[in-house]
Every structure is written in C-alpha cells, then in structure tokens.
C-alpha cells in the first residue's frame, strides 16, 4: 500500500488536468488527432509562468517553421521518408539559429500529421492550427496558477541567518579565547544553501507577471557576497592566537553583529561603531613586540573585512525600493 503515500505535486496535477482538458476540447471541436493537443499541453507546461510563455511562443514558431519546410518538401518530393529526412535536417539548424529548438517535438507532430494524411488542404491546416491553439492555450491558462514560494524562501532565509549567526559567534569565541572546538560545519553548509535559495528566488521572480518583486533574490545574493567575506575572515581569525585587549573588543563587536543578523538593515550603525573603534585602536599603546605588531596588523585587516561585510548589507538597504524590504528595514537594526 506504499503507493497510497505517493505525493502528487502541483506541476503533475496541472499537467494531468491540462492534458485532459485539451483532448476534451479538441474532441468537442471534432478535430483530427485530438490527442496531439494533449501532447502539446504536456510540452508547454513548465516550472515557471515565464518559462511557459517562452516555451509556448517557441513551439508555435517552430511548428510554423516545420510546417513550411514540410509543405515545400512534400510538394516537390511527395509524401516519402526522404522528405521527412530532409525536413528534419533542414529544420534543426534553422531552429537552433532562431533559438526555437525546444519546439522540435511539437513541430514534428504537425509535420507527421501532414505525412499521415498525405494532403495539405485548408481544412487540415486549420485543424493543425486548432490543435496548437488549444494545446498551448490550455497549458498557459493552467500554468498561470503557481503556489507561493514565500514560505520556503522565508524558511531558507532563517536557515541562512542562523548559519551566519553561528559563524560570527565562533569567530568571536576564538578571538576571545584563542582556541575553539568548532568543526566549521556551518562554513560547509552555507554555500549549498545559498545556491539553492538563489535558484528558488529566481524561480519566484519568473512566476510573477507584470510586477517584479526580487527582494528575496537580492537578499540571498547579498548574503552570498557576505559569505565570501566570511571565508576571507576565517584564516585571519584563526591566525590570531595571541591575546591582546583589541581582540576582545573586536570579539564583542562580532557578538553584537551576530545577534543582529536578520532581514532588517541599519548596518550603518555598526559601520559607524566600527570606524570609531578602529580610530581608538590606532590611538592605543603601540605594540611592544613583533608578535603584537603582527597581531595588530591582522586585526586592522580583519576590521576592514568586517566593514566590507557590513557595507554590502548597507548598500542593499540603500538601493532597494521594495516595499516589503523597506517595511522590514524599519523594524530593527540588522547586519
């Protein structure tokens, strides 16, 4: 009875319903080859709304191209396998040239109808046009409904932020104690999660017609850039095993940033605080030993990378005019 536990996805359900509707409509209109309308619907239903429209357009253009090539060859060579061979050999390079090669199957369906019928009269051409209109039209209508991805994107957002918090906390701990038992698993998990989140956010954009809400996409791209800086910070932090007062100050600062990792964006507050701290460190007592001097230099380099990390978030908030992001930004400071 395990088959009862099978999960049917939205795309599977839409494909099944759309195929049945297309065949039903073609039969009601008494079209020849009604199953072909269902095949065209199956081919046109894509992962996103925009992909469906693009695919539909390409298949229509490819079908007309295939129809034109086929009619010309059938006229001169008759309805023979040689004509089919030449039609395919001519069609594919042209389809690739025009970027409509994904319409190969649907165009061949139309071509085979002409070949099977051995005629090219107006009723048959109208029949093929009707199959295309029904197949493509039903696919577009069915695919207009896309389940919201907001829940998944928010969940990924929380996962990314949790990883960033932990990474920053571990950096802070090492600066404070000069040692750590951290295994660095968050540094391994973050790239894959960010890549997956960016793909999902891009898909979410392609599901929206007429309005472009790319706040999640911009957010995850921003986090990806920040993670590159965290990767650059890691060897700097791990090299700072000499305890100096400045290390503890930066550790406290990283702890504050860690506690403020969320979608909100007032990173400029942390940037101002960092610059003030850097000036105070410059004015502090000079290093007495070479080891202290090297540690001080590494700390300044670390501060520069932290500033870059914060600046990336600050730029996102400054450049974004998305209402959802703006509303969140007003809530509380974030890094």
Structural key phrases:
single chain, 335 residues, mainly alpha, Four Helix Bundle (Hemerythrin (Met), subunit A), 2 domains, disordered C terminus
Care to give the gist of this entry?
Helices cover 76% and strands 0% of the residues. The chain has helices at 10-28, 35-44, 49-77, 81-98, 104-117, 122-143, 150-177, 185-206, 215-239, 245-259, 267-283, 290-319, 323-329. The protein starts with 9 loop residues before the first helix and ends in a 6-residue tail after the last helix.
Question: Could you characterize what this model shows?
Answer:
By secondary structure, this protein is an all-alpha fold. It has 2 domains: 8-143, no CATH class; 150-329, Four Helix Bundle (Hemerythrin (Met), subunit A) (Up-down Bundle). It has helices spanning 10-28, 35-44, 49-77, 81-98, 104-117, 122-143, 150-177, 185-206, 215-239, 245-259, 267-283, 290-319, 323-329.
| Strands, total number | 0
Q: Give the fraction of residues assigned to helices.
A: over 70%
Q: What count of structural domains?
A: 2
β-sheet strand percentage: under 5%
Instruction: Examine the secondary-structure arrangement and name the CATH architecture of the largest domain.
Output: Up-down Bundle
The CATH C-level class name of the largest domain: Mainly Alpha
What would you call the shape? elongated
How would a textbook summarize the main sheet? none
> What structural category do the secondary elements indicate?
mainly alpha
Number of helices: 13
Series of H and E elements: HHHHHHHHHHHHH
Give the C-alpha Rg: 30 Å
Global mean pLDDT = 87
The CATH H-level homologous superfamily of the largest domain? Putative aromatic acid exporter, C-terminal domain
Distance between the termini: 50 Å
């Amino acid at each position: 009875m395990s088959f009862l536990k099978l999960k049917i996805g939205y795309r599977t359900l839409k494909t099944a319903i759309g195929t049945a509707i297309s065949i039903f409509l073609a039969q009601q209109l008494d079209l020849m080859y009604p199953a072909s309308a269902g095949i065209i619907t199956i081919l046109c239903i894509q992962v996103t709304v925009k992909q469906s429209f693009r695919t539909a357009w390409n298949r229509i253009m490819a079908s007309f191209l295939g129809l034109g090539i086929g009619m010309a060859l059938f006229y001169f060579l008759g309805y023979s396998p040689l004509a089919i061979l030449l039609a395919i050999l001519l069609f594919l390079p042209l389809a690739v040239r025009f970027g409509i090669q994904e319409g190969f199957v649907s165009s061949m369906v139309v071509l085979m109808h002409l070949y099977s019928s051995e005629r090219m009269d107006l009723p048959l051409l109208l029949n093929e046009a009707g199959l295309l209109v029904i197949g493509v039209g039903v696919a577009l209508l069915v695919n207009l409904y896309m389940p919201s991805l907001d829940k998944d994107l928010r969940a990924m957002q929380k996962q990314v932020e949790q990883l960033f918090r932990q990474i920053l906390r571990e950096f802070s701990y090492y600066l404070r104690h000069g040692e750590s038992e951290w295994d660095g698993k968050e540094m391994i998990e973050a790239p894959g999660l960010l890549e997956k989140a960016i793909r999902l956010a891009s898909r979410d954009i392609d599901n929206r017609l007429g309005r472009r809400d790319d706040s999640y996409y911009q957010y995850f791209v921003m986090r990806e850039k920040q993670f590159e800086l965290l990767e650059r910070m890691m060897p700097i932090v791990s090299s700072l095993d000499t305890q100096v007062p400045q290390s503890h100050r930066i550790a406290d600062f990283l702890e504050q940033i860690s506690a403020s990792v969320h979608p909100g964006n007032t990173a400029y507050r942390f940037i101002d605080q960092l610059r003030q701290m850097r000036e105070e460190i410059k004015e502090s007592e000079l290093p007495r030993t070479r080891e202290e001097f090297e540690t001080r230099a590494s700390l300044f380099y670390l501060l520069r990378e932290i500033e870059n990390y914060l600046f990336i978030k600050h730029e996102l908030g400054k450049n974004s005019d998305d209402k959802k992001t703006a509303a969140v930004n007003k809530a509380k400071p974030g890094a």
